[in-house]
Specification:
The chain has helices at about 5-30, 40-70, 75-100, 105-140, 145-165, 170-180, 185-190. By secondary structure, the chain is mainly α. The chain has one domain: Up-down Bundle (Four Helix Bundle (Hemerythrin (Met), subunit A)).
């Protein structure tokens, strides 16, 4: 699925970011000490990588190309992705608002942050898995090689344009930092530090 490598890479990066948020939320829920700025950094990562890169890439590049080449715009997996993008953007906004008051939260706010973060992580993982299993194989099977090449080029151009604008975030470094602080000695932390 070389044509979809850019989107698959995004899914892997978002999974790493989700693990960082999981580690932070576990520490928040258990009452452990938290570092100021960590929630802000993680939420910024989701805004940058999920909303401004991955969702836009799907909405502006993938879906229009698929529709031009015979996919139904109302296809369930595409409809689900659009609805999930809206839901995930909302959850990111809720966490951004919480980050504005970072470490000055009431018990009720802490519980809301935990619930919102877990919902965000679960929905992001579920959407990525559905696309990897349902949509991506169909794209590779139904599109002609020339169209797959066009898709690869457009996704690459999108990534290059984002990088040129400075929209780059080192999710692996953020993950290592969060996991080292909040969940030391986990297999994921050791794997990423290699």
């Amino acid at each position: 699925m070389q044509a979809l490598e850019s989107l698959q890479r995004d899914h892997r990066v978002l999974n790493v970011l989700s693990e960082a948020l999981d580690a932070y939320v576990e520490a928040l829920e258990s009452g452990r000490e938290l570092w100021r700025g960590d929630l802000t950094d993680i939420v910024h990562g989701f805004r940058t990588l999920a909303d401004h890169r991955h969702f836009e890439k799907e909405d502006e590049v993938l879906v229009p190309l698929l529709v031009r080449h015979g996919f139904d715009y109302q296809l369930d997996i595409l409809d689900d992705a659009r609805a999930e993008h809206d839901s995930l953007r909302y959850l990111i906004r809720v966490l951004e608002q919480a980050a504005e008051r970072e470490l000055r939260w009431t018990l009720h706010e802490r519980l809301r942050i935990v619930g919102t973060a877990r919902n965000l992580v679960e929905r992001q993982r579920r959407l990525a898995a559905a696309q990897e299993i349902e949509l991506f194989p169909e794209v590779v099977t139904r599109l002609r090689p020339a169209v797959l090449g066009q898709l690869t080029e457009q996704l690459w151009s999108f990534d290059e344009a984002r990088m040129a604008r400075g929209q780059v975030l080192d999710a692996a470094a953020l993950h290592r930092s969060m996991v080292a602080r909040y969940r030391a000695n986990t297999p994921s932390a050791r794997e990423l530090s290699r």
